[in-house]
Amino acid sequence: MFKRRQFIKISSGFLASSAMAGSVGWPLISGKDALAHHPAEKVVPTFCELCFWRCGVDAHVRDGKVYKITGQENHPLSNGRLCPRGTGGHGLLYDPDRLKHPLIRETVDGVQRFRKASWDEALTLIAKKYAEITEKYGTESSVMFSHGFGASFFKKLFQAYGIHNFTHPSYAQCRGPRLEAFKLTYGHGVGSPEGLDVKNSKYLVLIGTHLGENMHNTAVQDFADAVSAGCRITVVDPRFSVAAGKAERWLPIKPGTDLALLRAWIRVILKEELFDKKFVEENTIGLEELRDGVEEATPERTAAYTGISAEEIVAVARDLGRYKNNALVHPGRHVTWYGDDTQRSRAIAILNALLGNYQMPGGFITQKKYGVPGIKFPQKKSVRKLHSKYPLAHSMPSNEVVEQTISAKPWPIKNWFVYGTNLIHSLGDQQATLKAIQNLDFMVAVDVLPMEITGYADVILPESTYLERYDDLDDRTYRVPYVGIRQPVVPPMYDSKPGHEIAKLLAEKMGLPDLFPDDIETYLDQRLQKIGSSLSELKEKGVIKKPESEIYRKPGKILKFKTPSGKIELASEKLRELGFDAVPQYTPPPENPPGYFRLLFGRAPMHTFGRTANNRFLGELMPENEIWINEISGRDMKLKHGEYIYLVNQDGVKSKTSIKVRLTQRIRPDAVYMVHGFGHTHPWLKQAGGRGASDADLVTQQSIDPIMGGTGMNNNFVTFTRKA
Prior knowledge:
Elements: H1 12-15, H2 19-22, H3 31-35, E1 41-47, E2 56-62, E3 65-71, H4 84-87, H5 90-93, E4 103-108, E5 111-116, H6 119-137, E6 142-146, H7 152-161, E7 166-167, H8 169-186, E8 203-207, H9 217-228, E9 232-236, E10 249-251, H10 258-271, H11 277-283, E11 284-285, H12 287-293, H13 299-306, H14 310-323, E12 327-329, H15 341-355, H16 398-407, E13 415-419, H17 423-426, H18 430-438, E14 442-447, E15 459-462, E16 474-476, E17 482-484, H19 499-509, H20 520-529, H21 535-541, E18 543-545, E19 568-569, H22 573-577, E20 597-602, H23 616-621, E21 626-630, H24 631-636, E22 644-649, E23 659-664, E24 671-675, E25 703-704, E26 711-712, E27 717-721
Parallel strand pairs: 6-7, 6-13, 8-9, 8-12, 9-10, 11-19, 13-14, 14-15, 20-24, 21-23
Antiparallel strand pairs: 1-2, 2-3, 4-5, 4-15, 16-17, 17-18, 20-27, 21-24, 22-23, 22-27, 25-26
Helix pairs in contact: 6-19, 7-19, 8-15, 10-13, 10-14, 10-15, 13-14, 16-18
């Protein structure tokens, strides 16, 4: 649309409350008031979207305002309890910095700016630009980036229009290596929520898995139950995490050597015949090749790589072998670390297979969906669809979309539709993302808050929060099959609209007037009637459930796996055919440059990525992040606890904002750690702006997983400066 797309700071005038909105301010309710009876009070069941876990919540409303959020007692993902983020969800609803009106980019006297627009004008412009770009380049030139449950109706719209190019940063920047590794080994993924029986585990190993900080509600409840039941826990992590505080053994591993450790454990278990021989004989192939493939992974050699003693390595392997079926090596969640991530996840899958914990108490379990039939939407074929150059990528890596947008090969990508994801902070390699944006003819951003990515859009559409809208039914794979409802708790504020309504209005503008039913309630009710329920029932109950599925295997059960061999593949013929190692092999990662520390990052229980940093409620719990530095390393660098510094990476890139020093004994001397999601630099995010630093600013080196295209981001290194 413009020769050079400039970032535009959204004017405070677009964020100011209107007269109507001004009456809906921050509901400062005292504990005494919250307990008092009030005739205008009601409780509305819905489900959360402060993260992807989608717990059932009860929103408590008084005089038309949400004043607290609690966990649904009957919902299997919340069980009456919520994480800090879930209880603070109304901080998003009443965020004074919310996007309030559609905005259109325009140039006046050579200056680019946003101006307020009506919905009709904004949607008309989008439809016009899609028609022009499709006419010139074809539908294959348009791509949708998305994160969040509300994207489903936009996907249906674009499929009906002939656009089938969808990408999710959560794949190549988070979970993709684990998905592909378990598919290669077992023929299926781990699931989300994961099909893990943590609460019944007798011996649990966590490798860089921050349960208690990576606050997935049910997973943390299960972990707490395991701890209470006396589960023995080993934590492998360069940092003494919350989970490490619950463990009997903390192994402060040298970053990047996790695969070496896993291979050593496999070797010990095989050498000492500690594996489940009957299960392995009946259900796996490749055992002898696996033996040969790990022969060099001796505990002594591995100790030199990892910094963990040979005695500790052997002790953990023997413990795993002792508990076998009731032991579990957790597969993790955010697993894009060093570029060997699919093979590292493969090693975890193999190790669990040797234990024979498949469909056993404390191991991997079977989960099912409730099974609500869908409603078929028309789809128009696309001439060309994006295909990854990485052989086992089952979803198009977002970083590849960025590459193709820059190169225009094998064809140009000219149009991005960005739903609920701040690509500037999520993809890594910010310069590549910004360069790709300059090559676009058009970009639409749909969001609740004015995140960094919205400043580069041509049209910004303000979506209602999850407390103001319906979404599709939540028919989730879980150990307790269930269907949950997201429904409006209060009417949409300002001039925002729910995603389903935006999609319907846009469909009409794009020549698809009959694509969606007249209203969302009709659509939801039609689906629910197919299982003998109704929208009115689900709105009242919040969730309907079936009994817990049969999660364990019965004695003598014959197992079948959707692998080429029909068995668990300890050595992968498919990987061999593609030129990769059939058995995971270890290659040491890059070493720290002199005077630099490996940059690690993770989560906090009160924040989700960057989407909660502006939440006033959650900001009170954690207003900024800190940089964890080993006490000895920090003193050698003459750093003081509590002072503010800037981070500078190996390529000379400096953090845009400063960060507070936290000197601690809880991290290795060769690494530093920070919580992701801070370092927003723009004053229109008034709570988040200028608080802490962003790790995304410093990820200029990405180690791409050659199997599925995941972006390993932990091979970046930083040093420190006090200069702004």
